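This protein record is not my work; I was only asked to verify it. Take the sequence as given and treat only the tokens as open to question. I have pasted the whole thing underneath without changing anything:
***
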Amino acid sequence: MQVTLEDNSAPLDKIGKEESPYLLLDKGLQFRITETVNALYNFEFDKAERGFLVMQYQYPEHPLPYFLMGLSTWWRIAPDIENKKFDDLFLKQMDVVIDKAEKMFDEDPENKEAAFFLAGAYGFQGRLLSERKSWTKATFAGKNALKYLNLSRGEEELNPELLLGDALFNYFSVWIPENYPILKPVLAFFPKGDKALGLKQLEDVAQNSFYARVEAQYFLFRLYASEEKQPYKALAITDYLHAKFPNNPYFHRSFARHLYTVGRMTESKEQSEQILERIEAKWEGYEANSGRYAAFFLAQYYERVNDRALAKKYYLQTLSYGEESESQESGYYLYSLIALGKMANEDKQKAKAKEYFNQVKKYAKRKHPAHKEARDYIKKNKL
């Protein structure tokens, strides 16, 4: 018999009498909403949000169901972070989470769960506001996120849900000043983090938590791919996530990307073809940004098997998707221009080749390796 969210659950004031004072840790609730949370990450938003509305009815004063509803909106944004369609809704949803959590925190300043939701809500707001270059608002949100991350720490023996706060604090309190020195003063009043411990804690959360598992896996594969230089670990996580949530376009394109990174070109090609088919069929969340990735991987595949016609076709498609998503400064766009410029030069189309390389110089920052490659190629080939 399938158990759904609509089954009875204990009132909020009864939560914890049997297990824990925190709703986050209610195993019965976790069991009932597993399918609903999975629907969120599989981009079945209508199904997920119906479940979260029922949760809001059951627990009207707790931030958890409101946070999950906001998380659903965040994943509508994630595949195309430049799309501002859901910004106002998302920020308002996080404001509701903050309001609910602050009331809990006012009643009990030692409430780690309230601090967790405050850190999470401010953290998500800060992520979006920084993408929008609203630096003053992003800094305010970031300071609050760090403040409550610090207050939510120290519960690793209690539950991996709350350990996510520790993990992110430990990793990013070291990572932020290493990568953004301007923010060092913001961190001066907080305990020093431990990046290696933070990574280990993220792995623990990814293995053992319920609500935070996928978010921890999201951070892990991104860190493994970029900061930690462990592409096979990144691939293993995205392989799992795509298999678990096959309709999630962000996980799908990340899987294709990591296949490409480790040289599994045929598999990357197959996934990329499927991505383009889904964009054509207008699947939920599949859009130009994912198309830019997929078209570039296909172009690279066909260039390696010496099919210049198809390579050129997909490089041009990468440009088209890049322009649609306004991603002309991305590496995929720039290196597609370089590849097309080289092909044009080989075909004795000097003027066209020069045009492609000038486009690289236009969109790439001078220190970008693509800018240098374009300058050197123009000089060497006298374009």
